[in-house]
Write a structure and sequence with these properties.
alpha+beta; 8-stranded antiparallel beta sheet; 4-stranded antiparallel beta sheet; 3 helices; globular; ALKBH3
Length: 196
């Protein structure tokens, strides 16, 4: 799969039929990205986790945190980030998930987001802060073409709902040292029974 760079600075990874998936660097300045990274690193309640894989319980190789967009305890930096994302992407984002990749040993295996946890036809947007990490985006059907995308601080990656049907994405471990990165994911979740 070839990626093309448009005049607007938006890189298209997948078309509307199977995606869309687009990447836009420099949505916020490096200085603002560094400031938001520091604020989130120190200001949110990071959690570790474990999950069943290969018939055994393993530690999830990253830390995480989650907020509802209307949570009264939402850190101001996330409210500001939500404003920036909504100015770029028209969607009623109501869920903000954070992943903290502490070093080159932290990762996320190739996967797609679970469609029952997303509102149909609403995108997922990832804001990257901190060190640049490689995301591998791979087509599920043969010939399984893939793109290795360098997610820089201050960039946005948009994945359409439809992209979860056609592509896996992941952040692999690295063999070289790399600094910490925070990924801020904006989603639209379906209302659950009992939600107002």
């Amino acid at each position: 799969m070839q990626s093309s760079l448009f005049e607007t600075g938006v890189q298209r990874i997948a078309d509307e039929q199977t995606g869309p998936i687009t990447y836009q660097p420099d949505v916020i300045t490096p200085e603002l990205a560094a400031s938001w990274f520091d604020a989130l690193l120190k200001g949110v309640d990071w959690h570790s986790g474990s999950r069943m894989m290969y018939e055994r319980m393993v530690e999830v190789p990253r830390l995480h945190c989650h907020y509802a967009a209307d949570d009264p305890s939402l850190p101001q930096v996330l409210a500001n980030a939500l404003d920036v994302v909504k100015a770029q992407v028209r969607a009623p984002f109501d869920s903000i998930g954070l992943n903290f990749y502490r070093n080159e040993h932290d990762s996320v295996a190739p996967h797609n987001d679970k469609l029952h946890e997303l509102m149909p036809n609403q995108p997922i947007v990832l804001l990257s802060l901190g060190a640049t990490r490689t995301m591998v985006i791979r087509r599920k059907t043969p010939p399984h073409l893939k793109t290795e995308l360098e997610l820089e601080a201050g960039s946005l990656l948009l994945m359409g709902w439809n992209a979860q049907l056609h592509y896996d994405h992941g952040i692999p471990k690295l063999r070289r040292p790399v600094g910490p990165r925070i990924s801020v994911a904006f989603r639209v979740r379906p209302k659950r029974n009992g939600d107002e």
